[in-house]
Write a structure and sequence with these properties.
Distance between the termini: 35 Å
Number of domains: 1
CATH architecture: 3-Layer(aba) Sandwich
CATH topology: UDP-N-acetylmuramoyl-L-alanine:D-glutamate ligase
Radius of gyration: 17 Å
Amino acid sequence: MPLLQDQLNLLLDSYPVSAVKTGLLPSRMCIIAVAEILEKRKIPLVVDPVMIASTGATLIGEDTSGILCARLLPLATVVTPNMSEASSILNREIATKQDLEAAARDIAEQHHTSCLLKGGHLPGNDDRLDVLWHDGNAHHFSHPMADIPDGIHGTGCTLSAAIAAGVALEQPLEKAVGNAIDYVQQLIHSAHAWQHNGQTVQCLGW
């Protein structure tokens, strides 16, 4: 992917980039191209390992997810999987609140990174729990279950981008994660809708 690498190098040479966040990388070649650039640049990296949508739909192939784990996760400052993505990374089911801490630890230790495992897809109506494993310790972030309006997507993407902003500001990772979770919660609670061509369009608040 020479064109992709040329574009990334141009951006990184032109601007003082303090952190990078990746989202959906749809092919093996895209992942390798991005990894080759970031291996040389040593810029703090937040990896949102977009593999499985909140609907359960698989977004990348098994061979692509293997390359993502092998090439990109070891470069990450922190990786932010949801429960389905964590299950794919570890090749075991992550289904309960009790699974979260061990899974976050295992992903972090296997890939020499930190891991924020998002528990937003847990069944039940109790508070949601996200677990950050960082520097050998677990940090728990509990927040009320948000009533997300139908049609709202991208909360995980927004969360990882907000974490990257905190990392760029040189916040400790625990603080960057906590601030990002609070920020996304505020956006969800201020989400609004409007009509466009007879359809309801939902948008996170800003």
